[in-house]
Amino acid sequence: MKAKSIILTILFSGITSAIVVFLFIHNYQPVIIQPQSENYHAKLTNLLNSSSGENVNFVLAANNSVQSVVHVKTQYKQQMSSGNVYDFFFGPGAYSNPTPVQASGSGVIISDDGYIVTNNHVISNADYIEVVLNDKRAYTAKLIGADPTTDIALLKIEEKELPFIQYGNSDVLQVGEWVLAVGNPFNLTSTVTAGIVSAKARNINILSKQFAIESFIQTDAAVNPGNSGGALVDSKGQLVGINTAIASNTGSFTGYSFAIPVNIVKKIIADLIEFGTVQRAYLGVSIVDLDNKLASEAGISKIEGVYVASLNEDGAATEAGLEKGDIITQVNDKTVNNVSELQEQVSMYRPGDKINITVKRNEKLKPFNITLRNKHGNTKIEKTATVSVLGAKFEEISINEKQKLRIKNGIKITDLGSGKLRAAGIKEGFIITSINRKFVYSLQDIEETLSNTKGGILIEGIYPNGMTAYYAFGM
Length: 475
Known about the structure:
It is built from ten helices and 29 strands. The protein is α+β, with helices and mostly antiparallel strands. The chain has three domains: about 1-35 and about 55-280, Thrombin, subunit H; about 285-370, Pdz3 Domain; about 385-475, Pdz3 Domain (Roll), CATH 2.30.42.10. The strands form four sheets. Strands 2, 4, 5, 6, 7, 8, 9 and 10 form an eight-stranded antiparallel beta sheet that branches. A hairpin with a 4-residue loop joins strand 9 and strand 10. The protein is globular and about 65 Å long.
């Protein structure tokens, strides 16, 4: 198969009748099919003998994991039209009866009191989330938080003494090891498939968010639409990854699947539980993979490590003494050979944490101790803020974001919730620059403007891709 014909698709299925639903990652929008009956037509299956190795037994791994994997069902309101200027003058409600549609994926129970990890794309923009356990018990789930830059989301159901999975260690997972994928492909609950780790630290350019982190575990375990958010486990049944994507030209499995390493997942989940948002640490550098051409131009004899192309003036790396042209070879004694490996290692830390980095400069190794910073260039802990009347969460934007978008002010929407902003058609990541022609510099500006407004609301702003937009709705 030619590489250019491979389409990376998110493993996300709607409830269909003999129809495969899949997601093209270039626009990150799900293709949602109107719910129909769950009467599946029989299909012929070829059962082939396999010589996958002597004394290979996956019963223990399956038994230790299958009870912890759940079916995540979501419901959306299919908007016929987003908020528009006519609503501003004539009032909202032109499309007051949007069509409900359903979709589904998988999730993994990580604690006995009901915390469940899944993919952000499984629950993004959902109005209602239901979790069905392996024993068929069903619960309404609450979204605790999500991180689009890693495609991880955390849910919570109210129950105790649940079967939860044990964490493994994705750092020690090796290419060639056996792994199992556990999930709900095509709504076939509790499906287990086996394969090996084909590669690590794989970047497939599937996450379009700014500062996205991709360092996937690549496997040949069969996964299909509906496996998103499910478990990738080792031979002991311990969680080593969250299944996220497949490489396919059909929307179904054709050879390779990709999972988020559990060591990244653990840090994201810990942040969401403690702070409500991810505490992302940054080196403050622009980096590229070192290849033969770049090595030749830079006079580097050995192709290993990650090339520092530029540094932020107020970044952690600049403060520590790194320079343009340095080659980062290790993070805390862990070798890094590409951008994905470096991003993965740094993603496990918070602003204020100290790490040791080894760089090659003029063919000599130099150690540096770096105090990581947040995107604002400091070590403060960030927390999300909520405006109750809008039902959404917001955060301040960084200086770099302002410079890139050429704006002087704005507040970013990090979680739409289920309020008026979602109903108006606004997407997460939108930066509000003004409300009713008044500039927005802080969350307090939003609260004050809304508290003094009883009629229509006109919101203006910009998306991270530079597209400006406005939305209007009634209070």
